[in-house]
Structures are given as structure tokens and as C-alpha cells.
Design goal:
The complex is a heterodimer.
Chain A (H helix, E strand, L loop, with lengths): L4 E10 L8 E11 L4 H14 L22 E2 L2 E2 L21 E5 L8 E3 L2 E2 L2 H8 L21 H11 L6 H5 L6 H13 L7 H14 L10 H5 L7 H16 L3
Parallel strand pairs in A: 1-5
Antiparallel strand pairs in A: 1-2, 3-4, 3-5, 6-7
Helix pairs in contact in A: 2-6, 3-5, 5-6, 5-8, 6-8
Chain B lengths: L13 H8 L5 H4 L3 E5 L3 H13 L2 E5 L17 E2 L11 H11 L6 H21 L24 E2 L5 H18 L3 E4 L2 E9 L2 E9 L5 E5 L2 E4 L20 H8 L4 E2 L4 E7 L22 E5 L16 E2 L1 H5 L9 H13 L11 E4 L1 H14 L7 H27 L8 E10 L2 E2 L12 E3 L17 H21 L13 H20 L5 H15 L6 H21 L11 H25 L23 H4 L1 E7 L5 E7 L14
Parallel strand pairs in B: 1-2, 1-9, 2-5, 9-17
Antiparallel strand pairs in B: 3-4, 6-7, 7-8, 10-16, 10-18, 11-15, 12-13, 12-14, 14-15, 18-19
Helix pairs in contact in B: 3-6, 3-12, 4-5, 5-12, 10-11, 14-15, 14-16, 15-16
Classes of the chains: A alpha+beta, B alpha+beta.
Chain lengths: 254, 657
Amino acid sequence: MEHYNMNLTLKVWKQQNKNAQGGFETYSVKDISSEMSFLEMFDVLNEQLINEGKEPIAFDHDCREGICGMCSMHINGRAHGPWAGTTTCQLHMRAFKDGDTITVEPWRAGAFPVLKDLTVDRTAFDRIIEAGGYVSVNTGNAQDANCLPVDKHKADLAFAAAACIGCGACVAACKNSSAMLFVSAKVSQLALLPQGDPERQTRALNMVAQMDKEGFGSCTNTGACEAECPKEISLTNIARLNREFIGAGFSSEK
Amino acid sequence: MLNAKIPAGPLNTKWEDYKGHCKLVNPANKRSLEVIVIGTGLAGASAAASLGELGYKVKAFCFQDSPRRAHSIAAQGGINAAKNYQNDGDSVYRLFYDTVKGGDYRAREANVHRLAEVSGNIIDQCVAQGVPFAREYGGLLSNRSFGGTQVQRTFYAAGQTGQQLLLGAYSALERQVALGNVKMYSRHEMLDIVKIDGKARGIIARDLITGELERHFGHAVLICSGGYGNVFFLSTNAMGSNVTAAWKATKNGAYFANPCFTQIHPTCIPVSGDHQSKLTLMSESLRNDGRIWVPKKQNDTRKASEIPEDERDYYLERRYPAFGNLVPRDVASRAAKERCDAGYGVGTSKQAVFLDFAAAIERYGNIEAGKRQLSNLSKAEIIKLGKEVVAEKYGNLFDMYAKITGENPYEQPMRIYPAVHYTMGGLWVDYELQTTVPGLYSLGEANFSDHGANRLGASALMQGLADGYFVIPYTLGNYLADEIRTKAIPTDHPAFVEAENKVKETISKLMGIKGTKSVDHFHKKLGKIMWDKCGMARNEQGLKEAIEEIKALRAEFWKDVRVPGAEKEFNPELEKAGRVADFLELGELMCIDALQRRESCGGHFREESQTPDGEAQRDDANFSYVAAWEYKGPGQFELHKEELKFEEVIPSQRSYK
Ligand SMILES: Cc1cc2nc3c(=O)[nH]c(=O)nc-3n(C[C@H](O)[C@H](O)[C@H](O)COP(=O)(O)OP(=O)(O)OC[C@H]3O[C@@H](n4cnc5c(N)ncnc54)[C@H](O)[C@@H]3O)c2cc1C
Ligand code: SF4
Ligand code: FES
């Protein structure tokens, strides 16, 4: 792979805290290597800001391997930037060229208030999981693992749904700020497995109810979530959630 | 001499006996007993969930925005368990034996045996939670092998095993949150322990959003804060992984054991430049199928594809025919360093070796063709089939490699090099996972317990979950049974006030320096000292130099660091500053520990102590102990020894040949 260096202009959202008014600031960075990750480019910028006696830009990140779901930048109008199936931390600078201007914003959604700069509050996702994203089994109750064979195809589908990293890009990408892709991934994982069966109806109802309560919008099937999801969680999960939800609605009318 | 409180009796009945005789707390009393859990990785989340289920009042803390993001999420390759589903000769004893041997005979037998005993329950528990492990067509669980073993006992979920296990533990945790048994404090950092009458009774935490300090009481405190590999700056750990919680415990009287035992993982993506912020692991599971080699000629600049088979040196297969590419990590890392130092390295930096899948792709292609009863396939068609199989097994790892390097690992071999990965050292704990401070426990990577001087692959996940699901629910009860009369202590108690003031002072000091250099500047410098002098190979002179250099760097840090922003706000630079301040103290202790251990064992390679063929040479007569260090003031530590007694596995020179 050929390497090159580039000079860039960055327009970055700055906001002191939840209640403050935010706005864009413009920065320039020089000699950015195409081998850097996008967040390493931000490290360079922050180091530069600190050396100039200015405040660095606050952003969330941890694993930098595309798995923790912490990084969350809206880059040039796209959640996690231009590469498909890629988190912000795995985006590399060879996606850009010398002279580019890059606009970076936080996730925009009512249910994800900005805490500072590019950092948002995603605890609504935890509360949705609390509403039913589990199998009610206490430690110590389990039978031998191989007493429960699972159809490989279904196990693979469950795994694909379980790969969701809870990053919130689906919400940020959606014009309605819907969290359906996230919720459907968890509901699907557990609905596809025999372990999840006993609670599948209450799970779907309760998780959807919590999602509504948190102020996420409704799903109008535009598919932007799937397109921006770094783990390529499939829209078929939303279809499955809808089936689960409708089925649960009918049978729980007591 | 330290007392590990190992139960009497034969090794294989100790844990049964312990469980049969430990004290219990009745359900009504549990409701008024409060437990603080620092960390929500596999160890912390499983402990918090299980203790919540039992009825204790639990408060759990993590510094990320959600407990689901703890660094355990990044574990790739798998988790071991002695299920013997493959009928290939595995057993509890063999897992125990492999772990003690893999740890180069520096682990405590009783703990390791318990770990092997509960390993099977972990898989059962995770499957019951809905963890989607890989399965065979018959619907049963699939296994693969990992380094240092000759059986297939590793359970996995593609290259995302840690993610799936953590999400299982996280969902159990969130269920307890919903039931009101656990209160979750995310974006909170524990910054000190509160001790009253010699016992751990609470913590001081900083709300990372507002910057406010908080006091929290607990009848017991569990440190599950993970490993400290980031003392090297560059490691495979997440950016936020740190030693602060464990280090505050150390400063409050908990001994720190075997700090110098660090694991350097053989297969990571090499450093590409000065901008590098972290290193990415390519899971050890890749060594199941990938073959490691370098050119036979020094400074060979040809592309891998241009180097014919007979000009390649598969040096692990050559040196260790019995285990081949599946030797333990410490052995594989040193062998890579040896080849690169001798001038056989590849890539622009020459600090890399090849990990090659060409043979595996072809082999799998043929097997697949057989399965599908396809004959007369061209080589290209076979390779296509083989690539599909490899993609199913390792797809996410290959994608990650491609994104980072811009190269396609299906077409050309990966370039890999060793990197800091895991820390076997940690808080000293006894059989009950209690530190030397009563009421203060440590679980998971944060403690030192089970891996001796080298951890085998897929055993950290096992240990974290063993500690949290199956050990602490018993051992903590044994302590809390005597605490049922202790009422919750109000947090205006002088000990809380004093601890909070201490934390406040440190923060003001950091903010007040207003120096000229960023926190990262110091962290990088510390990392370089540690890597050069306390890394894959260590010697007396280097370690002595490192100690002086770290002292000087620490002094400079406290004079010249610049922490921008304010105290009472979301301030990631301030968080980093506190963590690096602690690393600057820990780094010195690691070098002191490495200096006193004048033997080589596992990941600790003292150049002065090697066999004629360059393998680690242990010195059991003089060093068969755990080195547990007591903090005595800045830069001062007193060594306490826990003698290691081997009743079952007789230490011998480890051989993988
Ligand atoms: C890339 C990678 C791959 C790996 N792959 C494998 C594998 O395949 N198999 C295997 O067995 N092992 C693997 N390991 C090792 C294994 O993942 C870890 O050892 C294990 O997950 C550690 O779990 P833990 O619960 O002890 O800590 P962690 O998961 O690191 O959790 C630490 C927790 O503590 C919290 N915390 C830390 N400090 C504070 C503080 N001061 N205040 C509040 N909270 C705090 C954090 O927020 C976090 O919640 C891998 C490690 C890496 C780096
Ligand atoms: S569904 Fe995709 S975009 Fe949404 S939270 Fe999960 S991983 Fe992120
Ligand atoms: S930092 Fe973990 S997914 Fe990006």
C-alpha cells in the first residue's frame, strides 16, 4: 500500500456541555499520514491544541478495534464516515486526500443529548436492555450446554444479530431517530434461540415500550440504519421484531 | 510469610470442601449488606449480577458510558473449558496441568484446580443466557485449539468471543438493575478506597460528566478493573484500560503481586509510525491454521509470493516440532524477536514476521470440495471454497487487518509482531480472592491469581467468569456472614471526608501545574522505557537504568504536565493525567520486581538466565514464590513472599519440543 501525507481542514462541533449552545470550529492539521486511523488524526489535532494552550476536543472512544461501540462521530454527513461496515475508530485516513475539508458532528438525536463536543449520552440503550434484553436465568441454574442443540443456521443468524455493538449509528442515521435496528437485533438474537423462547412476547413488548418512552422516533423503513450500521445488522431483524411484536400484541390480550 | 488460606485436603476436593463449610448469609440479612463492584468487564459484570441475584445490594462502577463497553468486549479467540466434548483426552486435571505448566510453575495449584473445576459450568451458564457460540451442523457446540495445549477445548463465537460473553454478563447485570438489586454508575471513576478500622468500607468516585466527587459506602469492595498493560503506552488493551483502581488499593495496603509478569502476545499488527495510539491483536486462534515464517535469507526484500517454499523458514515448526505454531505465547514471541533481531524480519520496518494462510485455504478448500462431493475442481475453485471457510472462521479478524493495513490477507500473508497484551501480575489475593485488606477483593485480570508467569490463550475469559459467577458468591458470603451486625456507615464519617480531601488535593495539584507538555507526551516516554528495558527481554543493567529514568520522568511530570480544561466538567485529559500518574509509580515497581527475580520464567525473560538453546531458565531453588509488594511510600516497597508448593505437578524445564 502506497502511503501519502495530507493537509486537511476540519470543521468540528464544539459544545461546552449539555445546556450550552454549540457551534462549528474550524481547525487545520498538517502532515497527516494515510496510515493513521481517523481517531489518531484527532489525537494529533488534540496534541496540537494542548500545545497551543487551547482546549482539546472531547470525543468518546475506547477499544479502537471496532468492537466496544464507544466511538461515535458523524463524518461528512455519515454516521462513522464514508466506509461501509466500519466504525469511526477503524476508518483510516487513506479514505481522504490532501486538501479535503472534513465536517465532524456528534450523533444527532433527541434521545442522545450532547454531553460535550462530540460526546453524547447513550444510556437510553442500557434502559432498553433493562426492559427485557436478557434471558431470565440466575447463575447456577444451567443444564449441560450440549443438552440444548441449536440449529446451526439459526445459531448463525442469532450470532449475526448479536454482533450489534450498541453504538447508536442507526439512530443517528435515521431521519426519525428510530432505534428499531438496535432493538430488533437483541429481540432477534433471543427469539431465534430456544433459550429466549419463554420470554419472547414480553420481551418484544417491553423493549419497544421502553424505546418509545425514551423518545426514539418510529420506523418508516427507509433503511438508512442498515446502510450506516458498522456491523451490517440486517433490516430483516426489524421485520422479525415487527412479527414478534404483533404476535405478542395479539396473544397478550388477556 | 503470606498465608493464602488454601483449604486442607487433597487438591481435587478442596473447593467442594470449602463450599460445604463456608459461612452463609441468610436472605433477609443479604438485603442490608452492600457491595461495591469496580468494573463491569467479565469479572465485574458476572460478580455484580450474581451477587444481585443472591439479594445483596450492589453498586457497580465503570468509566465507559455503558457497562457493555468494558475492555473484555474486545477479546477475540475464545474461552477454555474442560468439557471434553471432542473426546480427545481432555479433563479437569489436564486443563489444570496445562495451566500450571503454561504458567511456568509460578501459579498457585489450588486456585488453578478450582478454575478448571468450574470451567464447564461457565459454558453452561453462558449458553443458558443465550450466548451464540459457534456450533456444528448437528447443533452442538464447536471447539478449536489454542496455544500450549494438545486438545480442542476452546469455545468461541467467531473472533468475537469476548463480545458475546460480555453481552451475556451485561444482560444478566441489566436484569438485576431492572430488578433494583444493582445500581449502575457508568461514566464514574473510582479514585480511592475508604478504610475504616482496617477494613475496606467504601470508595471515592468521580462523576466523569460533572467532575463532582462522590462517596459510596459498602460492606465490601471488589476491584475488577482489568489489567495494566497500558503502562507500556502501546498495547492491545483499550485506550482507557488502567491501573488506577488497583493502584489505589495498593496504596491503601493491598499487596501487589508479580507486577513484572507481562504477556507479550506474538501475533499483533506491527507498529506503522509515531502516530500509533494502540496495537491490534490478531487472535491466537489464527495460529491454528496460519503458519509463521520468515525468509531463510537475511534482509530479503522480495514479496512473500516471490519467495519459494524451500527458502522459507517455518521457525516455530523447526524449533518446536511437538507443538509447532501452537507453542505458548511467551515462547512464540521470543522466537519472533530472535529472528527479527538476527536480521530475518520482513516489511519496511523489518520488525515483523509472516503469518500465512495459503496452506490452510487450500486444505479447507479440498475438505469442502469433499464434503460437497465436487470433483475435478480447478485449483482456483478449491481456493475459492477454502477462502469461504477461512472467512467463516476468522472473517472479522481478516477484515480488521485489511482495514488497518490496507492489505488483503486472503491474498498475501499477514505481517505480525509481538505486542504487550495481558498482565499476569496484579493485586495479591488469597484463595478467597481477598487482598491483604479485609473486605477488599479482586477479580479477573486485576488480580494475580491463576496464570503464573504466562497465561495460556482463552484462559483469561475463563478466569474472569469463574471468579465472578462461581467463586465470589461463596467466598464473599464467608466474609459478610460476620458483618451482618455492621450498619451502613454514613458517608460523613471522617474516613470518607479524609479520603475525599486526598482525591481533591491530587486533582487540584494536577490542574495547577499548568506545565508545557501533554499527558500523552509523558505516557509515550514511559512506554518506551518500559518496552526497551522491561519488555520481552530484561537484564540487570537495563532495569537499574529504567528505575532511575522513571523516577526522573515522574518528577518532570509533576512539574511540567499540562492538563487543560476545568476540574468540574467532562475532562478526558484530566482522567488520563490521573491514570498516567499512577502508571509512573507502577512502572517503577515493575522494574524493581523484574530486578529481584533473577531467573527467567514465562513472560519474564532475564537475559542472564537462559538455557544453552536460548529458552527461559527457571531457578526453582531460589524463586519458587509469588513476590507480593507492600507500598511503603513513594518509590518504596517491601517484598513479601508466598512460597509456592507443588503437590500434583512437579516443576520441570518446560518443553514444547
Ligand atoms: C484484544 C484482546 C483480545 C483478547 N482475547 C482473549 C481471548 O480470546 N481469550 C481470553 O481468554 N482472553 C482474551 N483477552 C484477555 C481478556 O479479554 C481480559 O483479560 C479480560 O477480558 C479482562 O476482564 P476483566 O473483567 O478483568 O477486566 P476488563 O474487561 O478490562 O474490565 C475492566 C472494568 O473496570 C472498569 N474500571 C477500570 N478502572 C476503573 C476505575 N478506576 N473506576 C471505575 N471503573 C473502572 C472499566 O470501566 C471496566 O468496566 C484478550 C485481551 C485483549 C486485549
Ligand atoms: S444496530 Fe448497528 S448501528 Fe445500531 S447500535 Fe447496533 S451496531 Fe450500532
Ligand atoms: S473505539 Fe471501540 S468501537 Fe470504536
